[in-house]
Amino acid sequence: MRLQSKLTLFSAVSKIVVVLLLVALLPPLINRVAMVNTDHRLNEKKDSVLDIISNQGIENFVAEGSEGAYGSYNLLKEEFISIEQIPEPIALDTIENSLRKVENEIVEYRVLSLTFEVDGSYYLLEIGRSIDTIQESIATMQYYALYFLAAVILITVFIDLAFNKILLQPLIVIVKRLKRIGHPSTFTPKPINTTTSDFLYLNNTINDMMGQIQDAFLKEKEFIGNVSHELLTPISILQTRMENLLTDPEMPEHLLVKLVDNQKTLHRLKSIIQALLLISRIENEQYLKNEEVSITVLANEVAEEIADRAEAKEIKLHLNLEDDWTLPQANYSLLFTMLFNVVSNAIKYNKPNGTITISGAPKGKGYELCVTDTGVGITQENLPHIFNRFKRLQGPDNESHGLGLPIVQTVAHFHKIKLTVDSTIGVGTTFCFRFGNK
């Protein structure tokens, strides 16, 4: 998962946890706020009533000395106020829930109760608000609070997404540049536009590291050139000298046999060096891919080139190619070597009177070319190692040096060809090359 996705996911999960906690704590919190607000409102009404009594007298509510009472309910019985004269003084100043009977209906109220004295007479003031009305207010508050929380979460998520995208943009640029590197020589060091010190350090470190890798590849190319000259030249000189000695009529026969053996050894050594140089040059991208190669034409030319060798070993070579497919930006000579080596191995390790089939057909948006033989096969434990250099698993032919298949793999990788191998002991082996999109 990408870093930006992880940051966004973490932010979203953390906000969901916060929302769940708020949802759990919201009802008691809002209930408490509603009750405090209701008590504050009852106290305000109490102060208003006492101000009226102080300014206008108690007679506006209760006739003095009458031991009467005053009561008032609003239309929906949501609130009430009552004043009644009491015979004895009682110290009372409370706010609590209380049940009241109103028109044969029991209603629960939040009631403020207060006793006070006016001109030597004592009165009880009660102001109440319906609990149902308070609960309705609580439900409304919870409803809007939840919507508000949801809106805040959505806004903060979008803000986080935008911020993360801006914050991580330098890292995204660095990753894209790394993905575009096909070979160290194609990398160009570039500064990055950011004020984040971590990203600046990362970009500078990558630039320095790629610079060191480019220097190492350049030295390797120089080394390859030196090896070509320093090794192949003396080998060629030795071969020439031995050929001259072989033509000497006075050379004893037993020495001629040794010279022939030495010449074969030099030939094998020269072949090994040339194969290693070929692999190294391919890996260093010293070959151009500036040709369009027809896969069917390639397969036919390889079959024509190797037909005599197959016929000499009494092996039948079949071609079964459907349609045609062209590989753009390719190197024909390398592809020819790749396919030639596979077919050559199929001949080398085949059974007497065996067969080799080169088949090809479009697959998806690409083309699949397979070489199937009826040879001795490769064991399952050896299959993962067949492309290892110098690891010779089977070698009945003295000219086999274990580098044919490493060359095949190197050329396939150079052209971004998917290479698969399937083999069964005693049945045969199939090499498949997938050209184009996988």
UniProtKB/TrEMBL annotation:
InterPro entries: HATPase_C_sf, HATPase_dom, His_kinase_dom, HisK_dim/P_dom, HisK_dim/P_sf, Sig_transdc_His_kin-like_C, TCS_sensor_his_kinase. Keywords: Kinase, Membrane, Phosphoprotein, Transferase, Transmembrane, Transmembrane helix. Its main location: membrane. It catalyses: ATP + protein L-histidine = ADP + protein N-phospho-L-histidine. It is an enzyme of class 2 (transferase). One of its GO terms (cellular component) is plasma membrane. It is found in: Membrane. Pfam families: HATPase_c, HisKA. The chain crosses the membrane at residues 7-30, 144-163. Coiled coil: none annotated. Its EC number is 2.7.13.3. The keyword Transmembrane applies. This is histidine kinase. It comes from Pontibacter burrus.
